[in-house]
What does this fold into?
Amino acid sequence: MLQNTYQGQFERFFEPNMARYLDILRQMVSINSFTTRPEGINLLGKLTMDVFSQLGFIAESVPTANPLYGQHLFLTKLGSNGSKSPTIGMVSHLDTVYPPDDERRNNFSWRIEGDRVYGPGTIDIKGGTLMIYMILEFLQSSAPEIFEETNWMILMNAAEETLEPDFGDLCRKKLPVNALACLVFEGGRQQKNQFSLVTSRKGMATFRVDVEGKAAHAGSAHKKGANAIVQLAHTVSRISELTDYNDGITFNVGAIDGGTVSNRVPHEAFASGEMRAFSPEVLEQGISHLLALQDDVQVYSLNGSYRCDVSVRILNRWRPWPSNEGSKRLLSFWQEAATALDFEVTGAKRGGLSDGNLLWDHVPTIDGLGPAGGNAHCSERSLDGSKDQEYVRISSFVPKASLNSLAILKLLGV
It folds into this structure.
């Protein structure tokens, strides 16, 4: 009955409005909202407030805990039944990974080529914010009673790309534990009428390794030195060996530095990196193995008078979003909607983190609800096509908005 009521309305509603939707996206993409550019974050926040105010949303801006960043944005439209109204949270973020110089250097700005719209944040995640607007506008127009009877909360992180923890804390306070869902609008994957949604993500820990060696003249007193870089090379090799694809855990050393000049045995060196795993237990075990490398020292001065010192520190950690019943249940609503629309939906795990990692154990969460595209975080392009910039596919908006709208209606019991 539900699909008979709404199915024919989706394309008739969305298609005539696509030019207007793309103009909203163009305005968003034209604002540089690099994470550590608060003036751009706040300007995008203001534009987003104005767009959603047309649907009756009230805005609240909250400064991030870190003054380097802009303001988180929370948009709310309360249902007509007050606390008895069901609540749905919809999550996006304001920041991108592109500094202004990066955009200028690579001539990376809004442009349309065929089905692709290129530009900073088109898929990660300004296209996802637009998707939220499309869904809510459809529901306001085509299911007004449902729209008015629901508590809608749009939660937008000012610093998702650095995964600042304060946003998760704020969301947990604002989203009631009895909320029906937390819907995350990171870019989705789509092949024709097949859609992949995210039901779990890896957790991550970042680390730093510091090695203290002993300096010496590299010519006349080489045997008195203890080379910190050589020891770090041993440690980095051991870190690499901790990767275990069968257990779903990976280690990546992303930066190395050390020493001063070539005629001095280096007295210090450091490396930094990250580790990721789907299982909380596997992640914690990986951290234990990493910390144990502090006792695995191979480099001494030749006479044994000095032993290199290895220090491993865990800088930050983000818990995994493992497979769970709440996310599986939400997936079933999208699969039911997909069947009604002659689509196919599958659940998937992803190695990258999102705000879903912060919220899945508070409210049932599903991710990947944004449009489809590619090359997220990429600003370069080359004539031979080996490098290309971030883009979103125009043709992905209408089917994904249709799928999301119908699934939300089913979630609300229509």
Summary: The mean pLDDT is 96.
